[in-house]
Amino acid sequence: MRALGHRNYRYYFFGQAVSVLGSWVQQVALSWLIYRLTGSVALLGVTTFAALLPMLLVGPLAGAWIDRRDKRRLLILVQGLLGLQAAALSVLTAMDAIGPNLIVAMSATLGLLNAFDAPLRQSQIGVFVANRADLPNALALNAMLFNSGRFLGPPLAGLVLGLTSEAVCFAINAVSFSALAFGVSRIRVPEVPRAVGSMSQVFREGLSYVWAEYPVRMLIFVLATVNLTASSYAVLLPVFAKDVFGGDARMLGWLWGAAGAGAFLGTVFLATRKHMLGLIKVVLGGACISALGLLVFSHNQTLLIALPSMAAVGFGISVCNVGVNMLLQSMAPDHLRGRVVSFFSSTRFGLDAIGGLLAGLLAARTGVQMAMLIEGAVLVLFFIWTLRIFGRLRTEVSLRAGDGH
């Protein structure tokens, strides 16, 4: 918890805690709304694709754009816009004016805003923590918040859905964005030098760095593969909850909460690490654990096995994603961090979008259980391939991260 010793980071941390919880409540409620209204697993994939695709397409350009501006003020503005989007979704749902086309459009709007929000939040952490040595701990704590939301948000969403409606869940999320906006407004940091040059020049500088540096390029490739396969479980969970386990929104909350609990434990594990030594092994091990979790969960109908399996999936994805983020930000020069984070975010969420779309379409053709089995098998094969590059990747990351190991 040493990063919480920094005043600015504390304001960010507690505001982020409320915001993340609200976002997970909305995500679960939206998935349930779609499947309740349409019964279409393919539409679940399309909606996830619409929400995350802007991260892939706009994210890298957003990183170059925000590096040329006052990130703190821009972060506050984006929170306001996200709150308006959630409020509009709540009103439309309460009025029974929501339908598949409008849901996809609202999800795309959310995705566009998140394309700016994600790199803004991540790139500012290094500014909010004055001591660079505390940056990995701050990143791990930030991921703990996200995964605490995954653990607490879905069961809370299931409870609220059981007592009220999806519209109330969306309204909760709309209010939650004000917490982070308030926290960031209380932060006082020195003026950070902005990137100089045209948008194209700033973007090309970041792209050249990412492509030329072997460890950066390969870490992003690992990140892309894990999120193309394992992270697509979220699209399939509503179908498992209703059709495989014969449950309702509460069952969905338990399954999603189990994945969140595993992810939270993954970030706790990362937060306790004082050095970067061995983090490459942790990242690749996370890919393997998540693959095995998918394989076990895919053809199982016993809740006592399903919950630990989903927790293993969440743990593996978490240590992979957060570990890659810690390594990338530790290696990145200060003036390039915003753009490196934007490439991380666009890969993390953009490939999640494509994976979700493919998983939904695959499940519509082969069945939801077979679709998850295929995802797990592909990830196992990828893990076996990564064993070939492990030695070189570990050596080059150690040199660039400045860990001394």
UniProtKB/TrEMBL annotation:
GO terms for cellular component: plasma membrane. Residues 3-394 form the Major facilitator superfamily (MFS) profile domain. This is MFS transporter. Keywords: Cell membrane, Membrane, Transmembrane, Transmembrane helix, Transport. It is found in: Cell membrane. Gene3D superfamilies: MFS general substrate transporter like domains. The chain crosses the membrane at residues 12-35, 41-62, 74-92, 218-241, 253-271, 278-297, 303-328, 340-364, 370-390. It is a multi-pass membrane protein. Its main location: membrane. The keyword Cell wall biogenesis/degradation does not apply. The lineage of its organism: Bacteria, Pseudomonadati, Pseudomonadota, Betaproteobacteria, Rhodocyclales.
